[in-house]
Specification:
With 217 residues, the protein is α+β, with helices and mostly antiparallel strands. The chain has helices at residues 19-22, 41-48, 54-63, 84-96, 119-129, 177-194, and strands at residues 69-72, 78-82, 104-107, 110-115, 140-142, 147-150, 162-165. A hairpin with a 2-residue loop joins strand 3 (104-107) and strand 4.
């Protein structure tokens, strides 16, 4: 697979001023960090452009800003749906070592990463070819012909979908399949490294004699 460094990244993560806040999760730090990310007017316009009738969809959504919306994938964006713990590792890698991410939402215990159109079709094949592919919890990829539920324009206190990285522009940068693959592999490697335990004691000899010394005087 192709790897690249931060200097080669196609996206400047410093251009979005609210990035350090939206990637923090509940229970991590001060109260101000728990504010949910909000969709801007430009971000809502971009999302509704996926419907083919932007103005009508946007008017309908603005009349019910606290309601989620069902939007089609495949033309404006694809969605990579992953396990939330693994997805958080992916976001850590994307923001700390890579180009950042596109919009990200959580819904029904899953994390949804918005990606470039075509990602849903190519990513599974790339994972099959990658040596670390078997270590990646298999994502659900939503592309052409699929639809996803996106969080409401106005954050709510309910259990419904919510944004972690909300769209704020009419042309957000979206990771392609190679970038998502890179994040998957880096996340799998970090998880594997975290599972390594080093002991100062040598492994036990299964043939060794074991004596009960608890009764010795």
């Amino acid at each position: 697979m192709t790897t690249w460094t931060r200097d080669e990244a196609p996206h400047d993560i410093t251009r979005t001023p609210w990035v350090p806040r939206i990637l923090r999760f509940p229970g991590e730090g001060d109260e101000g960090r728990h504010q949910p990310a909000r969709v801007t007017a430009d971000g809502a316009s971009w999302l509704t452009s996926a419907t083919g009738s932007r103005e009508a969809a946007l008017t309908r959504w603005e009349s019910r800003p606290s309601s989620p919306a069902a939007l089609p994938c495949g033309t404006v964006f694809d969605v990579v749906n992953v396990d939330p713990v693994f997805g958080r590792r992916m976001l850590d890698r994307l923001w700390e070592e890579g180009p950042g991410s596109g919009p990200v939402a959580v819904h029904r215990g899953r994390m949804m990463l918005f990606a470039a159109p075509g990602t849903a079709q190519r990513l599974p094949a790339l994972l099959d070819w990658e040596d670390w592919g078997d270590s990646v919890p298999r994502p659900l990829c939503h592309g052409l012909g699929d639809a996803v539920t996106v969080p409401p324009l106005v954050p709510s206190d309910g259990e419904g979908p919510r944004w972690l990285v909300a769209p704020d522009t009419r042309s957000p940068w979206l990771p392609g399949p190679e970038v998502v693959l890179w994040a998957c592999v880096r996340a799998a490697r970090s998880a594997s490294a975290a599972d390594v335990r080093v002991s100062i004691f040598p492994p036990a000899d299964p043939d060794a004699n074991v004596y009960d010394v608890s009764r010795r005087r």
